[in-house]
Amino acid sequence: MSTDSSLTSTSKGELVDSFGRRHTDLRVSVTDRCNLRCSYCMPLEAVFKPREELLTYEEITRAVAVATRLGIRTVRLTGGEPLVRAELDQLVRQLVTLPGLDEVALTTNGLLLAEQAERLARAGLARLNVSLDSLDAERFEQIARRPGLERVLEGLAVANRCGFRAIRINAVSIRGLTEVEIIPLARFCREQALHLRFIEFMPLDADDGWAEASVLSGDEVRQILVAAFGPLEPLHTEDAGQPAVDYRYADGSGLVGFINPVSQPFCDRCDRLRLTADGQFRNCLFSTTEWDARAILRGRGNDDDLARLLVDCVQTKRAAHGIGNLGFERPDRAMYQIGG
């Protein structure tokens, strides 16, 4: 199988779609397996892909290497839960050596973070996003459908000592469920100097329970925070593709952000692509089409073929995800099968 690093003239240059959006961020799922069963992401009884259908670390590295030659500059490892995959630090070590790649980050639920944080930091992992929806053990288990709050908090404590460039907390906002968690999470993150981000509930739950009425909007969460902690000052960002709108507490005690894909879609500035654990490129979290990179990686295709596939994926990206519009079609896969 050829791994020729040269790219044809048709695939050289940046990954710019037909709407002028330049893509520099790649989300790479390493597994669909998870040690939680969060209701907004997974079914209680999940069926996972056979391990032989998942990309190897070498295959992932090859795909990312091609993507970096086309302009990808940051990679975030996701799942499922990426830390359930053995020796993830070895993949990080492979990726951080790729020319042109500026940063490798990770999104995790934190259950295995205490055991792995130091190895990941030594391997070159730059940033962590830790999912944490509640600081109450009972509500944590209600949402995650598994216990584990203390393990997540232990993992955060260990990670804080490991020298990561940044650690963010991601909390999903669901009306009628998480309102009571907003102030405790904000207080905790202010005290621990953690950057908290609230994410609106999206129609990617495997139980098909999402409804627009269940979306607790970012604006509503922000008003709760302002009432409790005082004014929030908007922050300017140089990263035009960043999905979050970030604020600083006026009293100087930390940062908080809001990712509002339902109430305030940011599709017009989206700069990310996805590679699923079983080797499919996706140009949108809500795409109903996939581009089979695994067939090239395991067949007779070379890197030019892989590059052309990725360019085609980008060129057919839609203007917006269409949530709330007549005719919106949910993807066949849930969040854990796509990669967060």
Give the C-level CATH assignment.
Answer: Alpha Beta
Tally of domains: 1
Order of helical and strand elements: EHEHEHEHHEHEHEEEEEEHHH
Name the strands of the widest sheet in spatial order: 7-8-9-6-5-4-3-2-1-10-11-12
CATH fold description: TIM Barrel
Largest sheet: 12 strands, mixed
Q: CATH homologous superfamily, by name? A: Aldolase class I
Q: Distance between termini?
A: 31 Å
Helix content: 25-40%
Please compute the radius of gyration using only Cα atoms: 19 Å
The CATH architecture would be: Alpha-Beta Barrel
Tell me how many strands there are.
12
Parts with pLDDT < 50 across at least 5 consecutive residues: 1-12
Strand-residue proportion: 15-25%
Mean pLDDT: 92
